[in-house]
Amino acid sequence: MGLSTHVLDTMHGTPAAGMQARLYTTQGDETVLVKSFTLNQDGRNPEGLLYDSASLQSGTYRLVFDVAGYFRAKGVELPEPPFLSQVTLDFGVADTRQHYHVPLLVSPWSYSTYRGS
């Protein structure tokens, strides 16, 4: 159980290895940075879970992914400003006994997310 994420680069058909990401807790307009991390070769947090089941609390969270920085580092020519710079996902955790997995499918022009398993 706990909280995890996984990012897939749909332009290249690969995990988004090297993408920078940040996790925040949120309450109203207040955000608190929990951790910054770089996605591993599988497009996941190299330390595993973002929160284990004992540490995850009910509440609201934000994941921010540096999409433009990632695609520029891959050699993709982006306009200035890029269509997508950072993708911000705000989500809630209601039942800490369940696993919350937040996948992101992303290209320089689109993204999709859902609650995974």
What does it look like?
This protein is 6% helix and 46% strand. The protein has 117 residues and is mainly beta. The chain has a single domain (2-113), classed as Immunoglobulin-like. A four-stranded mixed beta sheet has the order 2-1-7-8, with no helix packed on it. The chain has a four-stranded antiparallel beta sheet with strand order 4-3-5-6. The longest helix has 7 residues, at 67-73. The chain starts with a strand and ends with a strand. 23% of the residues are buried. The mean pLDDT is 97.
What would a concise description of this structure say?
The chain has 117 residues and is mainly beta.
Per-chain topology:
Elements lengths: L1 E8 L4 E2 L4 E8 L2 E9 L20 E8 H7 L12 E8 L5 E8 L4 E3 L4
Parallel strand pairs: 1-7
Antiparallel strand pairs: 1-2, 3-4, 3-5, 5-6, 7-8
